[in-house]
Specification:
mainly alpha; 208 residues; 10 helices; globular; 2 domains; Arc Repressor Mutant, subunit A; single chain; Rna Polymerase Sigma Factor, Chain: A
Length: 208
């Protein structure tokens, strides 16, 4: 842990309200986003986040620092969200857990696992996208929509890796994934988002 985290934990254990509000501001939006991947409505997601914060406050004295504070907090909200989602009867596709299912991008566009130098990399790369289209707010909205349509596990991984910038080890620890499973989920998530953007930008170019 960093010195900043140690100080924050000490303040939380001492009942410092400002320390708690600092945590809420820092991690609250991400916690809500993760919760929303598992439950049906924002209101339920907000309840999940509240429950998770109670878990944080009740468990902070037992926190041993084996992971970073943010990893520990995210693990709590992810577990709460999955439990609530199961109670609501929301099914989680197997593709969200092990990466099976229909490919979002033609598998022939990737090198096979037996390719020595770049297994799984693009063999037929996507066409370059116009820079102005990539920067357009509509395109960013398409990215957000494409991510929101992914299975929950894939959403979690791509949000933490590509939106929040977490490193692979942190994501695996927070979500309880093996390194291999995380790579599969991230690859599938990225390929689906990329496929949606290719279709969208192809339509934009045709319309233009």
């Amino acid at each position: 842990m960093s010195d900043d985290e140690r100080e924050l934990i000490a303040r939380l254990r001492a009942g410092d309200e400002d320390a708690f509000m600092e945590l809420v501001e820092r991690y609250g939006p991400l916690m809500l986003r993760i919760a929303q991947t598992y439950v049906r409505s924002r209101a339920v997601a907000e309840d999940v986040v509240q429950e998770a914060w109670l878990g944080v406050l009740n468990g902070i004295d037992r926190f041993e620092g084996r992971s970073s504070l943010k990893t520990w907090i995210l693990r709590i909200v992810a577990n709460q969200a999955r439990t609530r989602g199961q109670r609501e009867g929301r099914s989680v596709p197997l593709s969200a857990l092990d990466g099976d299912g229909d490919a979002a991008v033609d598998p022939d566009r990737f090198f096979g696992a037996d390719q020595a130098r770049h297994p799984g990399a693009w063999s037929v790369p996507p066409e370059p996208w116009p820079e102005d289209a990539l920067l357009a707010e509509e395109t960013l909205e398409q990215v957000r929509m494409a991510i929101s349509q992914l299975p929950p596990r894939q959403q979690e991984v791509i949000v933490l890796r590509d939106v929040e910038g977490w490193d692979p080890a942190e994501v695996s620890e927070a979500l309880g994934l093996t390194d291999g499973n995380q790579r599969v989920l991230l690859h599938r998530a990225r390929s689906k988002v990329r496929g949606e953007l290719e279709r969208y930008l192809g339509g934009v170019e045709m319309a233009a």
